[in-house]
Each structure stands twice: as structure tokens, then as C-alpha cells.
Amino acid sequence: MRSLNVLILVLVFVCSTFALVQDITRPVLSIAAGPVVSLVISPDSKYILVGTQDGNVKILDAQTNQQVGETIRCGATVYGLAIEASGKYFVTGLGDGSIIVWDFETRQKIRSWSAHNFTVRSVAISPDGKYIAAGSYDSTVSIWELETGELVQTLVGHKDWVHTVAFTPDRKYCLASLSSSGGWVRGLIFISTCVIIIAWKLCHSA
Fold first, then answer.
1. What are the alphabetically sorted keywords of the record (predicted)?
2. 194 in the Ramachandran plot: left (φ > 0), alpha (ψ -120 to 50) or beta?
């Protein structure tokens, strides 16, 4: 099995001024078999979760870069990764359209379900830990209950691939980035009505 070497470069900024404080280059990590397509840092900043194209998640110690526990097999490309605010659960969004909820401590699968007809490109967990948002290449954003896996709402109103999703801190809105022929577009979706209330273009295609 071939391996992929990944150099982790961490840039530390002062949030108030965005001045560079420290440039930390970590040792090269050996990530097995496929490109890294997603990553997320745990709420306590102790761990880095890495999702790979070959369908695996590895949990790394953020200080030593050593893998913690066994590799987690997801079965499809791990495009989306999110950790719940308490650190109890993490969620993977996969290339086969499914979502899996995992127990962070035991690394065991809690539940999984088919969420979309096409790739789940991004997942996010609401600040209160109750909901999962998933953005898909089927041009929809879906909202799910984390504890049950039940569908709460499907957010529509656009015709483009959804690349990333995020909740606002008050959980009233879901921010989604969409692809279009004119470049990248972001939309702010009001969750209770599923209506895009703001849309703006960030950049233009070449």
C-alpha cells in the first residue's frame, strides 16, 4: 500500500490584528493510501481528525503528530468532518451520500444513514449539538437530528453543488457555499423557512 506524506504547516495569528505570531512546521506525517480531503481540530485543540480519499479517518495527537487508536474505516471518501462542541461525537459525510455519527472516545459507530443521492461534500454540527447540516452535490442542504438521525428539513432554492455548510452561533441560519458558472456564491439560508435570504458572490471564475 502506498503512503502519502503530508507536511502540516500551522500559522498562528493574533485575532485582533491578524499579525503572524508563529510559524510552526510539524514533522511529515504518513497518511496511508489516499489524499487527505478533510480535517478538523477537536474543541480542546488536543486532536486533529484527518479524512482521506480512500475512506478512512485517523485521529492524531496535535502535539506529537502520532496516531491515537486504530484507523477508522468509513467505506467511502470522507469529504466532511465535524466534531460536536463537547467532543463526545464526531460526524463524517461520505462520497456515497451517507452520514455516520461516531463516538469520539470509543471510535465506535453510533448510527449511519443514507442522507443524499450524491456525495455529501460537507457536514457541520449546530453549536448546541442537536443538529447536523449536510451539503451535497445533489444541490440541497439537509438538516438532521444528531441523536436520532431523523430528517428535520431539506433546504432548497438553488441549483448548484453545495461545497461547504456552517451554522451561525444562534443556530437560526445555515451558511452554504455553492458553485455556479459565474464563480463561487455563498448563501445565507433561514432554517425555519428554508429560504435563501442573502446571496453574494465571493469570487469570479477565471
1. Membrane, Repeat, Transmembrane, Transmembrane helix, WD repeat
2. left
**What is this structure's pTM?**
0.78
Strand partners, 67: 60
* Domain membership flag for residue 8: no
Q: Answer for the pair 116, 142: CB distance below 8 angstroms, yes or no.
A: yes
Domain that holds residue 198: 34-204
Is residue 29 included in any domain, yes or no? no
Place of cell 511529515: 28
Please tell me the total count of domains within the chain.
1
Q: Please report, for the domain that includes residue 171, its CATH number.
A: 2.130.10.10
Residues 4-50 have pLDDT tens digits of: 444 444 444 545 555 554 444 555 455 556 688 999 999 999 999 99
